[in-house]
Amino acid sequence: MLRPARQPTEPAQMTLETLTAPRISTVASPSQKSNEWTAAQARALFELPFADLIFRAQTVHRAHFDANEVQMSTLLSIKTGGCPEDCGYCSQSSKFDTGLKATKLMALQEVIQAAAAAKAGGASRFCMGAAWREPKDRDIDVLCDMIREVKAQGLETCMTLGMLTERQAKRLAEAGLEYYNHNIDTGPEYYEKIVTTRTMQDRLDTLSHVRDAGMAVCCGGIVGMGETNDDRISMLVTLANLPKHPESVPINALMQVKGTPLGTSTPIEGFDFVRTVATARIMMPTSVVRLSAGREHMSEELQALCFLAGANSIFIGPKLLTTANPAKEKDDALWSKLGIRPMDV
Ligand code: SAM
Ligand code: DTB
Ligand code: SF4
To answer: Which pLDDT band holds residue 344 (cuts at 50, 70, 90)?
Structure first.
């Protein structure tokens, strides 16, 4: 019923039920875990004929979401540049000469003003990012004030501050922080080519502190860093096999930054980007999948394919953290052409 009649290139045993087994079987049989994806299963999805992959992603998407609703967040860099980490994609690392001016932690009042502007621009969530390896304990009080003030404006809150200790995660959660963004960036096999100053395990430890503190997890990665489709699949398997699926899964297309080691890497092919989104949608059916960095360089048609593939969250506003995002007028015109509405929260 959910399958198209003929799927000649597909392995015989790969039915919709097996390919989406984690979610569907959880309902059918409580012993089936939603986090036991193998690379072979994920690859079988990723490599489906394009129309079959999109059909499946749409089917899964529509089983869990209104397909015309997109959640909209706005980003603010509350502490820019001067970061000691060596993430090879990042404009904010002090290891690379990107010409970015480092700042101190932003004053509370400025954050409040930016949140009000984000709300007026149509965002339902406000995501505050800091170019830190990890926050210092002495910063936590003012971060908690920021959380309280942004929430007081009727916005959901998200922060991305680097690694957190158990106690720091608890304090942010107690202040009311709803989401914490901490990406795995890429698959485990490619990871050391991108970052050497923190390990994948460091990242997983922070994610478990965030979970234990009761916050929702926003965790995804970046594509277009010279990785292969197998690395992309491996990243998705790592995400989908976390003890609980992240509530939000950002798929960033690398924003190339001059002066970084990845400033001239080969961009991801558009269809492979859409395949990554669709596979994420099928593997993590109830997660919100974010068409994250990179929209600035995507055509309207490519973005529309991503929404068809199950992306249902974006950043709005003309700036991400340090790089560009589409202007409001351009985005509003696209929502109108596609009949997209903001998701109620
Ligand atoms: N410093 C903190 C950390 O790295 O954990 C938080 C801020 S960091 C900028 C947040 C995430 O943005 C990174 O983990 C990475 O996945 C993404 N990101 C950073 N630079 C990017 C770029 N040039 N293109 C796409 N995504 C990027
Ligand atoms: C995420 O996955 N993407 C956002 C957010 N989480 C913090 C950041 C994108 C940053 C793009 C590069 C920049 O603007 O500096
Ligand atoms: Fe620092 Fe975060 Fe950029 Fe890495 S991604 S260099 S940790 S700001």
So the answer is: confident
Distance, CA of 243 to CA of 11 (rounded, Å) = 28
Q: Is 213 in the pocket of ligand 2 (CB under 6 A)?
A: no
83 is catalytic: yes
The overall longest dimension of the chain from CA atoms, in Å, is 61
Phi, psi dihedrals of residue 77, rounded to the nearest 5°: -85, 110
User: In degrees, to the nearest 5, what angle opens at C-alpha 149 toward C-alphas 144 and 150?
Assistant: 100
Pocket of ligand 3 (CB under 6 A): 83, 85, 87, 90, 92-93, 131, 133, 162
Which pLDDT value is given to residue 26? 33
Tell me, using a 6 A CB cutoff, whether residue 251 lines ligand 2.
no
Q: Provide the pLDDT confidence category of residue 4 given band limits of 50, 70 and 90.
A: very low
Whole-prediction pTM:
0.92
The mean of the pLDDT values for the chain is 92
| pLDDT surpassing 80 at residue 73 | yes
Ligand 2 near 20 CB (within 6 A) = no
